[in-house]
Amino acid sequence: MLGRERLELQGPAQLRLMHRAGGVVADMHTALREAIGPGVRTSELDQMARGVLEEAGATSNFLGYHGFPATICVSVNEEIVHGIPGDRVLEPGDLVSVDCGAVVEGRHGDAAFSVLVEGGDDAQRAQDQLLIDATEAALWAGIAAFATADRVGEIGFAIEHLLAEREEDPHHPSFGIVREYTGHGIGSAMHLPPDVVNFASRDRTPRVRPGLCLAIEPMLTAGTEDTAVLGDDWTVVTADGSRAAHVEHSVARHDGGIWVLTAHDGGAAGLAAYGIAPVPVV
Length: 282
Prior knowledge:
The chain is of the alpha+beta class. The protein contains 5 helices and 14 strands. Helix 1 (12-35) packs antiparallel against helix 2 and helix 3 packs antiparallel against helix 4. The mean pLDDT is 96.
């Protein structure tokens, strides 16, 4: 069934709009990274993100999505994804994952990052940083695979292969790959086919064609891959209470090559290790 999904392909005009939406998301990330610190309420981050959207003349694709009540998702420590901003105050050493989206003239951008709040226990910080580093490495492995992939499933193979290689190094612990939540197509809607899993799968996945845009988003945990949903019906947490990290970029594969729509440099820094130079959307 996965191989027969009808995929939305973007033409040059649509890609330019997605580039604009992605730039707004990148601006949101920049502002929020600078704002995150001890004593900051997650609701303050949401208000800041709303201000970036308003200044850019963009709208939120999160607010109101199936009833979601905020502009961004803020997930802390054992929360993996879909955390609702509110009165929670960030503490020193918290691991914070922020997911943001924007819409410009009907085209969507979507990206996430994970970061540590300043301070906290040094040993815990070191473990959390390894988790974040592994998740970011998995993201870029997936994006690099997308640059040359024949089928979407090659992204998940690349992510799992990279993590397996890192686990052979005694300095890199084993992490759980969240399987219940995946990346996705993106374009005229935030969530489109196909699903983009973060692990090797035998399913027959769709062919990659110019104009395909994907949101690639690995989520790793320091413990089990099992998840649970809190009583708010949104916040996804690790079943064993271990910490989690979530990173994401929206990426376009076009006639000229690949471009990371939600990175200010098009993904140049992240792809350099793979010898891939992103080609701008024009």
